[in-house]
Amino acid sequence: MTWLTPLTGAILAAAIIPPLVLLYFLKLRRRPQAIASTLLWKKSVEDLHANAPFQKLRRNLLLFLQLLVLCLLAAAVMQPQMRARKNTGGKTVLLIDNSASMTAIDTDTGVSRLDLAREAAKEQIEAMYAGGWFSRSPGQTMVLAFSNRVQPMIRFSDSKQQILSAIDSIQPTHGSTFIADALKLARAQNTNVVDAMGEARPVGPTPAFHLYSDGRIEDLADQLLRNDEMDKFTFHSVGSDDPDNVAITAISVQRQYDQPNAVEIFASLVNFNSFPISCDVQLSINDVVSSIKEFALPAMTDDEEGVNIPGRNHVLFRLDNLPHGAVLGITNLREDDFAADNIARVVLPPPKKLAVLLVGQNRFLTRMALEGMSLQKLEIVSGEQYQRLVQDGRLDQYDVIILDNYAPPSDEFMPPARYLTVGPTPPLAGLTDFGFDEAGFVLTMKQEHPVFRFVNLDNLFVSQQRLIQPSDDVVVLAEGRNGPFVMSLDRGSLHVIHVAFDPLQSNWPFQRSFVTFMFNAVEYLGQLDSTLSHQAYSPGEALTIRLPVNATDISVHTPQGMEESIQPLDPAQTSWGPILLTGLHVMSWQVPGNDEPLSHPFAVNLLDEIESNIKPASELVLGSHDVTAAGQTQAGYVPLWPWALALSLLILMIEWWIYHRRVFL
Prior knowledge:
single chain; Immunoglobulin-like; 32% strand; elongated
């Protein structure tokens, strides 16, 4: 509370209150009067006592009421004002951030930032719609929740209960923070007139904007406040000044070159604390712990321009056997204030069955080796049929093409694909054929290459081989006395493994290494350019999948244990979203003939360094306009002198009524 003119009120009180009190001390001057009876003597004595000066004042209700009126009048002259929330009576827009960083729990109360923002917004609504004799109209309020998408919780309304219910219904998300759409929607609700220049103009006064957020908004620099909005934009900062967070900001899976079934899992961790930390990082396979590593992270520092540079480190896990169809999870076991970025997952696809095209109808040895493999399909064609497939552009239906004792007439018949060529030299630049050579043995080989996994060529004897001069981009995998036996060529989407001899002109068919080599070569070529993990999704996106056209009972199981049914018009183009929270989502469906439902997991990760930096901002910069955090409420001064005058008038009426009863009754 403050007083605008306290001295004036004090002078007025000093001038009028003492005379009133003195009036009650004055002694009345009465004339001697003979009386007819002593019954009236008692009343006369009472008057003498009442008007004798310097006696103790007797309790008098009228004196008390008169003093109270004078005090209230003096207080009204002092013009007291009390600090309270302003009530403009116009339109108000509450912008409540429900992005990932608002799920941080960095307060002593153990509630999230979103909970604090909701409570602060509700307190403001309670004050705006409290009512009172001297209050103005509360106006209308709109509530918008925003993250990477905007959610209108309620349009402009003057219903207090509906507004409070709308605030309570805001749910947390793990999306990133963008405010542009929220501002556009709020302005659009107040813009109904288009002028002659084609520009939208607001109807009525500009609404007051109240932003409840931690200030970590990615598109702030692109936003501009209009001149009429600059004084009506209030930022209510939420969150502690010293939060604790270590985030996983990246995860990837890579295949080992020398071991195609082995993978390496990389994860990047970032420390947003001003002190170094040590933490344990866990690798899990289908929620079963595989290994745990301990490593340190440096503290966050500032560069020369004062920009925060978080501490970084990387962790590496290696799996010797690729667990097809598994879910790999990297977890930061250290507890901090922000749990959404402490785990990241990748989904490894199930084993891929390959479609193989064998060119060479009379090559029974190769056919027998391929028929022993688990393939999606094996198609055997002649050279002429192969050329027609090339001309028709139908080679893309095969994962691996084997040219066994067959060479196309030109390189036009070897479009980009994955080839295993045996015998004749393929018509490719960089493979120059010089004819034949006689018997030879393998002298050197790259044992680390995937095609030679568990393959031993020490006892291989070749009676006749082709002499080839390879170019620099051709890798010799096995070499004899007179030239290469096995070569590898990779040119963009063209991948070739070439065996420079006919296995029927060697003792290779009698060795176990022949079947092993064929299996390795087909698997190596078939898995090239294929992803090691399914697409990782981010909050705000939609899950998409191609399901069988006869799929039924399609549903999505969320990490929170909820199940939501989907009824797409076309199962081949099934989608669900937007995704609100991180975690493992599983889509399941039924197909006729299968008693058990089929399923497909989807990994949803945050992996957003901007969102993981949860230190709240003290001010916002919208274009060139700085908005300083105003705390949790907007306060102004409410005058109290009208209440003092009204109360004075009421007391005077009571005092007149009491005096009237005493005198005339």
